[in-house]
Amino acid sequence: MPLTPNDIHNKTFTKSFRGYDEDEVNEFLAQVRKDYEIVLRKKTELEAKVNELDERIGHFANIEETLNKSILVAQEAAEDVKRNSQKEAKLIVREAEKNADRIINESLSKSRKIAMEIEELKKQSKVFRTRFQMLIEAQLDLLKNDDWDHLLEYEVDAVFEEKE
């Protein structure tokens, strides 16, 4: 059991023939008692401060643990977001590729259709040209016909005179 200031104060020594001066010993013990009380008081204060600091350390340890957990949760959430973003990006790329293929196929189909229409128009223009040429040639033949000369010889006045 540790020594207390009262133990120091109440300590008695046996007297011997050539012993110490009693007043001097009592003064020294009184001084030791005062110093010991100061040391004990400081010890108590320091223990209280240590307890307070231990509580604060515990509090900060809890905060640290909470922050570490929060960081882990945030990292996991970030990884989830990253994974989901990558999946979504792949889906978008896949969808874009499908759309591109569809657009290309539609364009090829339209270009084939237009090419077929062009060929059909070429055929129709050849037919039209041939028919038009035949019409013009027929008209030229009519113009070259001698019947026109006969019409020019026909006199209109003579027709009116006959009717009168």
Would you count the extended β strands for me? 0
Principal-axes geometry comes out as: rod-shaped
Taking the sheet with the most strands, its summary is: none
Relative helix content? over 70%
Mean pLDDT: 88
Along the chain, the helix and strand elements come as HHHH
GO molecular function: identical protein binding
InterPro entries: DivIVA_domain, DivIVA_fam
Main location: cytoplasm
Keywords: Cell cycle, Cell division, Coiled coil, Cytoplasm, Septation, Sporulation
List keywords for this structure.
88% helix, 164 residues, mainly alpha
Give a brief rundown of this model.
The protein is mainly α and 164 residues long. The chain contains 4 helices and no strands. It has one domain.
Describe the protein.
Helix content is 88%, strand content 0%. It is built from four helices and no strands. It has helices spanning 5-10, 22-144, 147-153, 156-163. The chain is rod-shaped, with a radius of gyration of 63 Å. The mean pLDDT is 88.
Give the helix/strand layout.
Layout (H helix, E strand, L loop, with lengths): L4 H6 L11 H123 L2 H7 L2 H8 L1
